[in-house]
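seq as requested:
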Amino acid sequence: MSDPHAVVDLARLRRTCSACGLHQLCLPAAIGADDLHRLDEILQARRPLERGQPIFRTDHAFTSLYVVRSGSFKTYTTNEQGDSQVLGFHLPGEILGFDAVSTDRHQCTAEALERSTVCEVPYTKLAQVAAQVPDLQRQLMRVISREVQRDHEHLVMMGRRHAQERLAIFLKSLSDRYRRLQRDPAVLTLGMSRYELANYLGLVVETVSRLFTRLQQIGVLEVHRKTVRIVDFDKLDALTGESPAGAASCEDSGVSARNGKRA
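struct tokens:
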């Protein structure tokens, strides 16, 4: 009979439930063996989704959270006129579905940007386990807090006047997320189209393409199709507008994609 107080280290944890990307919900140091087994039991693996296939849609009933296992996703809303607004992009190890926790219905659509897979975590079962495992509950709150922080960063970015600042903030934030997910923070894979990125940034696609060219010319990035390599982190930090040097170097002003004007 297994010892209920036995402790399993993070390495073993990653070989079990976190194999489906659940490591964001796992404990930072160790977890009891029985609790680890209970986490494994509630996971429901899903088949791969093709590009454009949704996990959930706006106003769908909330039943589960979804942990991105591979590929990437976008979340977006659509107004009555049929115009879409991209709300965010989601990477392996990140969690989708928190938008519906308070209302029990999803407030946006989550759609695969490429061939992707997710692990489905029924929310009711997760809440039951979390209520009995305080450390897991605290970790879940940390994940929700990061989602709120990301929304705040997006609002700050959209409040920036200059298009170059917006793109720099996005790339820096994406790099930071890569680092947290233990991926190379210098090599970013942009699964979204230029149009989807422009929509997210509140710009027109021509401006985004021009900015990538400019950042290559001044030695900040190397761009090869959907792969972006950050060559100079100091220059990228400056271009976010956090320093006088960054603010002075920005020449484009951002314009919402909705009004169709060029920056």
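The chain has two domains: 45-147, 161-248.
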